[in-house]
Write a structure and sequence with these properties.
single chain, mainly beta, Immunoglobulin-like, 4-stranded mixed sheet, 8 strands, globular
């Protein structure tokens, strides 16, 4: 049974300011992740070079909900474009995939990279 997983886009959350909540989602092929703009000024989009082959990249509009159907195993890096420099990123793990080599090699601001490292070190939060 496919699941729908909600991710909130927030100005302030458990992990600080300008965050996705949760910051790590573990899902299965066929599941849908829905990004909900709880606070204004956010979007959700996949990061260049951080989407597995076979999964379509996505780019949500500002202040709009965006749904992403997961079509292949792998790790997806997600950013809020206006707040990337502040570290507003999250990870979707599909099918229990391991972090691929070079996943964090994509060009990104220092705070975004640090946030990804922290998210991947923490893994799924129950």
């Amino acid at each position: 049974m496919a699941e729908t997983i909600e991710v909130k886009m927030l100005n302030k959350g458990e992990a600080g300011t300008m965050v996705f909540e949760p910051r790590f989602v573990s899902a299965e092929v066929g599941d849908t992740v829905v990004f909900i703009p709880v606070d204004k000024g956010h979007n959700a989009e996949s990061m260049k070079d951080m989407v597995p082959e076979g999964q379509d990249a996505f780019k949500g509009k500002m202040n709009k909900e965006v749904s992403v159907e997961l079509t292949t195993d792998g790790m997806i890096g997600v950013e809020c474009k206006p707040h990337l420099a502040m570290g507003m990123v999250m990870v979707i793990q599909v099918g229990g995939a391991e972090v691929p080599e070079g996943f964090l090699d994509a060009k990104m601001p220092k705070k975004a990279k640090e946030a990804f490292e922290e998210i991947l070190a923490d893994g799924p939060q129950s």
